[in-house]
Every structure is written in C-alpha cells, then in structure tokens.
Amino acid sequence: xxxxxxxxxxxxxxxxxxxxxxxxxxxxxxxxxxxxxxxxxxxxxxxxxxxxxxxxxxxxxxxxxxxxxxxxxxxxxxxxxxxxxxxxxxxxxxxxxxxxxxxxxxxxxxxxxxxxxxxxxxxxxxxxxxxxxxxxxxxxxxxxxxxxxxxxxxxxxxxxxxxxxxxxxxxxxxxxxxxxxxxxxxxxxxxxxxxxxxxxxxxxxxxxxxxxxxxxxxxxxxxxxxxxxxxxxxxxxxxxxxxxxxxxxxxxxxxxxxxxxxxxxx
Length: 266
Known about the structure:
Layout (H helix, E strand, L loop, with lengths): L2 E4 L11 H9 L2 E4 L2 H10 L6 E3 L5 H13 L4 E3 L13 H9 L4 E4 L4 H9 L7 E5 L4 H12 L5 E5 L4 H11 L4 E6 L7 E6 H7 L8 E5 L8 H13 L4 H12 L3 H8 L1
Parallel strand pairs: 1-4, 1-5, 2-3, 2-4, 6-7
Antiparallel strand pairs: 7-10, 8-9, 8-10
C-alpha cells in the first residue's frame, strides 16, 4: 500500500475532500501532528481511527519505526494540523524515506493556506514565491526585504500573530509603499483580509492580532533598479552630500524607497 499524504482543512472542518475522508477511515494508522486536533476533524465526520503522533520532535524516531510497517504493506495516512504535510509542516522526512525504500507515495490534495491567501489578497501575478515562515532576527528580515525588492512577483509568507507588528514595521522601513495583505483566520468564522501599503498596515497592526496569519506582498515595481539607485546615493555621499539628502533626492528621481536607500547607504 502507498503512503497517503492527506491535506486537511486550514480552518473550516467542512473543507475536506471525500477522498481524504475515505483514506482516513480505511487507514491502519493515521499519523498526525496533534492527535487532539485530528480527533476533532475525525469526530466531525464520524470516523474512528488509530492515531499516532508525528511531529518535529519525534519525526526521526517515528520514521524509523514506521518504515518497516510501510514496507510490509500497512496502510498509513499522514496528516498535519492544517493543510498539506511537508509544506512548512512535518512529513518530508517520512515521504523521502518511503520513496527511497520503494514504497509508493500518493498525495490527496486539498486546502492550502498559501493559495487561499494569495487569491483572497487580490495581489495576483503570473507567478509567486512562497518563503515559508519569516526569519525572527531583524537583520535577516531586512536582508529578505532587500532581496524581495528585486523580485517583481507576489510573495506569500507565514508569520505568528505575536511577531506580526514587528515584521510589518521592518517591512515598512524598507519597502513602505509595497502593497501588502494580512490574511487572518482564513476560512474561519472571524476571517479577515486587510489590504494596504506596508506603512499603512504597520500602523493598523501596532498590536498583535489573534489567530493564524498569512502575509502576502504584492508585485514590486520592476521599473525601479534598487541597486543602481543605492549606488547613486553612495556616489552623492562620497561627493559630500548629506546621506539623508542624497537618499531623498534619488528616491524622488527613481521612485525607490527613501528609507531603504538610506539604510543601504549606511
């Protein structure tokens, strides 16, 4: 039997496919991040199953335990707390081990916080980049914003509600005019999509909100060459112009962020 990787609802318990429900009902064992959360889903749909915890702290040990069972033909279903296992959730190790051992892997698709947020944001493009959970350190965040300033397409990221205010302040300092959407509690009763510039949302979310957060950055202005603008600021500073004046002048000429140019010139 193949290892069945099952997508589960990201909020609303009705957002689960018939195929996933059948697999969970027929599996010999269901691997899940939190057995309590998975029991709620199963109970909602009248399913009884043998559950086994599978999370970041026991992933290596569980993989070693379960691989022989998969090879012997047991029917194993893998779920995460929400969405598809392996995408910012445990599962990649078991999937790779199963494939290496010759066990087929089948994926049962379903809800996706990434794609749901992207569509709900309205900040759509021909392609997008998913960067997973955002870094915690301020320097790493600023480095990421500078990298994304040169990426012309939408970007989707995950963030905790506690860190959201700090993240938005950091983004606004580098890319204040970038269009952003904060997608909160997707598919749940208190779902909220707040759109605006990074600067506007930094002011709107001065305090941590409640609930799950997905952050979407809109397309960057591809016409602005951030590197060339920063180089122009550096040349003006070397010529004797005050750093902030140089950044202000080049920002007006190019449309680049004045704050970002000033920070890069330091």
